């Protein structure tokens, strides 16, 4: 049995090899000290070499992020509970920025702003960790938005078409279907190659659970990722949620894949940022928001893009949500977001309470990408839809006053009511593209004129079953991006007419 001296002698070569690579010498260590702390923010004195957005380490293991740099102190928000921290606590700079895990291992999981699991599952084995703040792709690295993003919502796909790589704002008052519309867009990707990322900023647990349950029941949860900033989380973590979710989605875009990012919602995110800015003594501006609140959202949404073929051809589509009060689109945050994005889908409380769901105001909604991002099979059928529907809404309001109308106006009103019935649909039931094409084709050919208005919903359900049974080749052709050729058109018309005859006869 070797003696203690012999064991120590055996360890000497290994210890000498490790010490040979160590450079000995003085090291300047200049830690900072907490000056004041509370409400999720802290002021730190010292750390003269700290940089903006640098990750700081507080004694006890809590991290913070420097967001204001003054001549004699740093303002930062905390990433975690600040229990045990007080004035005089030591703070060290790390020289790093906030990073989050990325990769396919995140799919199907519910995580917080830092990538920690919230679903009770195992730790995430990420491919790597990327910074939450990344520069947007340059102009030369982008391509024109042209490939359609199918949402399964007929009024959107027909009148407000979306493209991959677009930024489209969903805006409206509270509880009129904004999140449901975005959820339908996620559910519609169950048969596509688009990865979906849902970012919840301070939303109630019940609201977030409804979205997650809907995706698990009707979607493809294994191709979705949920990034949640809980209402009880520190405001700094809530502020990081959309940036972290964007970084996770960019991982797929940068590898030639396609991603959809839903941010619910940026109005609450702006309120969180206002809270942090006021606590850190930033000068307030309009509606008490700090002057850089526009830049906060612009640098986030500019990261959504369609990359050029040289960069892999991937895309990141953003669907941010904003909340208005009493339909006021001219408020500060909605105005900012409308000017940043490529269009907006406006939901109106009046339509919602009248039973029109989704309550999309077609006249006030716009997609600046337009027909370039619309499937060719849908493009011609939807050309005059916006104008016809807008004219019907005006005529219907006029006739509510009891005015006498001629036969021509009466026919236009009846047609408009059928347009509205076709554009109405239940939540969490996105329609396949072939069914949308068939519905608009029937509308344009007058197939619905013989069907009572109250039976159109039954006709739509019967059409879905008939198309599945009789039009599988036509569906494959349309899903592949083909045009509505005469043979396909005739097959779809025969199917919907046969259903219309049965429904009109009461069968």
Gist of the model:
With 507 residues, the protein is an alpha/beta fold. The protein has helices at residues 4-20, 154-159, 178-187, 205-218, 235-253, 266-279, 293-301, 332-340, 349-353, 376-379, 385-399, 407-423, 433-444, 456-470, 472-479, 486-504, and strands at residues 32-38, 41-45, 54-58, 63-69, 73-79, 90-97, 99-102, 110-111, 128-131, 169-172, 194-201, 224-229, 258-264, 315-323, 343-346, 366-367.
Q: How many DSSP-defined strands?
A: 16
Q: Helix- and strand-based class? A: alpha/beta
Mean model confidence by pLDDT: 89
| Major β-sheet profile | 8 strands, mixed
Strand content: 15-25%
From the structure provided, what is the oligomeric state, counting identical versus distinct chains? Answer: single chain
Strand order of the largest sheet: 8-12-11-13-14-10-15-16
How would you characterize the overall build of this protein?
The protein is α/β, with parallel strands linked by helices and 507 residues long. It contains 16 helices and 16 strands. It has helices at residues 4-20, 154-159, 178-187, 205-218, 235-253, 266-279, 293-301, 332-340, 349-353, 376-379, 385-399, 407-423, 433-444, 456-470, 472-479, 486-504, and strands spanning 32-38, 41-45, 54-58, 63-69, 73-79, 90-97, 99-102, 110-111, 128-131, 169-172, 194-201, 224-229, 258-264, 315-323, 343-346, 366-367. The strands form 3 sheets. Strands 8-12-11-13-14-10-15-16 form an 8-stranded mixed beta sheet, with helices on both faces. Helix 5 (235-253) crosses helix 6 (266-279) and helix 7 packs parallel to helix 8. The longest helix is centred in the middle third of the chain and has 19 residues, at 235-253. The radius of gyration is 28 Å and the shape is elongated. The model has no long low-confidence stretch (mean pLDDT 89).
């Amino acid at each position: 049995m070797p003696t203690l001296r012999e064991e120590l002698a055996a360890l000497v070569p290994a210890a000498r090899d490790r010490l040979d690579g160590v450079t000995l010498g003085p090291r300047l260590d200049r830690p900072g000290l907490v000056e004041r702390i509370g409400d999720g923010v802290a002021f730190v004195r010292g750390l003269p070499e700290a940089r903006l957005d640098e990750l700081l380490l507080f004694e006890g293991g809590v991290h913070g992020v420097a967001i204001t740099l003054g001549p004699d102190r740093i303002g930062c928000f905390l990433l975690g509970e600040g229990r045990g921290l007080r004035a005089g606590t030591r703070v060290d700079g790390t020289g790093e920025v906030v990073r989050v895990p990325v990769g396919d291992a995140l799919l199907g999981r519910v995580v917080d702003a830092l990538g920690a699991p919230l679903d009770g599952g195992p730790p995430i084995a990420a491919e790597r960790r990327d910074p939450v703040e990344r520069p947007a792709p340059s102009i030369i690295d982008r391509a024109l938005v042209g490939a359609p993003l199918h949402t399964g919502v007929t009024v959107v796909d027909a009148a407000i078409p979306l493209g991959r790589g677009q930024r489209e704002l969903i805006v409206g008052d509270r509880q009129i279907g904004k999140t449901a519309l975005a959820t339908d867009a996620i559910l519609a990707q169950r048969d596509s190659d688009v990865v979906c990322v849902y970012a919840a900023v301070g939303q109630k647990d019940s609201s977030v659970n409804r979205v997650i349950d809907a995706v698990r029941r009707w979607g493809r949860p294994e191709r979705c990722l949920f990034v949640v900033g809980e209402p009880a989380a520190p405001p700094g973590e809530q502020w990081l949620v959309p940036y972290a979710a964007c970084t996770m989605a960019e991982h797929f875009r940068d590898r030639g894949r396609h991603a959809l990012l839903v941010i619910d919602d940026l109005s609450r995110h702006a309120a969180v940022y206002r809270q942090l800015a006021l606590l850190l003594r930033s000068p307030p501006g309009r509606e008490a928001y700090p002057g850089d609140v526009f830049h906060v959202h612009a640098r986030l949404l500019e990261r959504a893009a369609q990359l050029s073929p040289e960069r892999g051809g991937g895309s990141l589509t953003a669907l941010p949500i904003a909340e208005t009060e009493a339909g006021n689109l001219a408020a500060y945050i909605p105005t900012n977001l409308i000017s940043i994005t490529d269009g907006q889908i406006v939901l109106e409380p009046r339509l919602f309470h009248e039973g029109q769901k989704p309550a999309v105001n077609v006249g006030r909604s716009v997609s600046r990408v337009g027909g370039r991002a619309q499937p060719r099979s849908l493009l011609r059928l939807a050309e005059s839809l916006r104008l016809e529907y807008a004219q019907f809404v005006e005529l219907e309001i006029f006739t509510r006053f009891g005015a006498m109308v001629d036969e021509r106006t009466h026919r236009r009103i009846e047609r408009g009511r059928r347009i509205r019935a076709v554009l109405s649909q239940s939540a969490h039931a996105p329609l396949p593209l072939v069914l949308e094409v068939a519905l608009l084709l029937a509308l344009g050919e007058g197939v619905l004129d013989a069907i009572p208005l109250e039976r159109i919903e039954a006709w739509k359900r019967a059409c879905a079953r008939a198309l599945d049974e009789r039009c599988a080749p036509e569906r494959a052709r349309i899903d592949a991006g083909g045009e509505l050729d005469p043979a396909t058109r005739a097959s779809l018309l025969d199917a919907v007419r046969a259903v219309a005859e049965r429904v009109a006869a009461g069968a």
